[in-house]
Amino acid sequence: MPALIFDCDGVLADTERDGHLPAFNATFAEFGLPVHWSEEDYAGKLLIGGGKERLTSLLTPEFVQAAGLPVDPASQQEAVASWHRRKTQIYTDLVASGALPARPGIARIVADAAADGWLLAVASTSAEASVRAVLLYTVGEMLAARFQVFAGDIVAAKKPAPDIYTYALEHLGVTTDEAVVIEDSSNGLRAARAARLRTVVTVSSYTADEDFAGAALVVTSLGEPHGVTTSVLRSPAGVVPRGFVTLDDVLSVLRSPDPEEES
After folding, report:
1. N or C: less crowded end of the chain, CB within 10 Å?
2. Which residue in the list 7, 163, 184, 249 is annotated as catalytic?
3. What domains are defined for the chain?
4. Cβ partners under 8 Å of residue 2, min gap 6
């Protein structure tokens, strides 16, 4: 039984600009922290895997002094954990409000995969509560219940390390030749490829200009039959969707030769 493994942010919904960024900034304001990330600032932070890790990157000596934070590392990490809990709550409230609709084709491809008996999973560096909130509001309760969710601190090393994907494979009970990943970022692609997984990339608002070498298929979105049309940006696997990505296209990616095995 094949598996379809999704990243969350930027894949299920374009969450970064309209979800995570305002949630971070609202958290900073609530805690009286002397920082407000612009879209350009946040684009740089996205190179760091994980919300707590992005918050930890603030802790320069200058910031610690300006914010009146304790100097010992343990107390600083307690502060980061508190910020992150509040940020997650703000974010999940945003998701529940319907502010972050699913990306084109997500609900359709999930429904088709579920109907054909595929295993479904999300593998993300985001907090599990955030991932489950996005999953619920993008595919609905019945389909969300079909997913296994691997998220947050379930592994120590975040993307681009492959750990979250190797963990997912082990717990899904499938091999690298039985799973396809859908990602949106270079970091996510690097993680999937390091786990030897064939990967479809659906570029998102922050990742369109990133390097996706190693992806089997790169598209603008999964597309819809009577809506947003898929544009193919590159297709080393030779899979060319016609207007929108179908489950047959995903299966063709799964059956395509792994470029690393051919080299």
Report:
1. C
2. 7
3. 3-14+101-255 (3.40.50.1000), 20-97 (1.10.150.240)
4. 118, 119, 174, 178, 179, 180, 251, 254
Which pTM was predicted? 0.87
Let me know if 7 is a catalytic residue: yes
Q: What is the dihedral of CA 35, 40, 42, 45, to 10 degrees?
A: -100
Coil/strand/helix, residue 233: strand
Residue 25 makes CB contacts below 8 A (sequence gap 6+) with 36, 37
Question: Active-site residue among 9, 163, 184, 249?
Answer: 9
CB atoms within 10 A of CB 153: 11
Query: Among 159, 176, 187, which Cα is nearest to 258's?
Result: 176
Whether 100 and 94 have beta carbons less than 8 Å apart is answered as: yes
SS3 content of the chain, % helix, strand, coil (to 5): 45, 15, 40
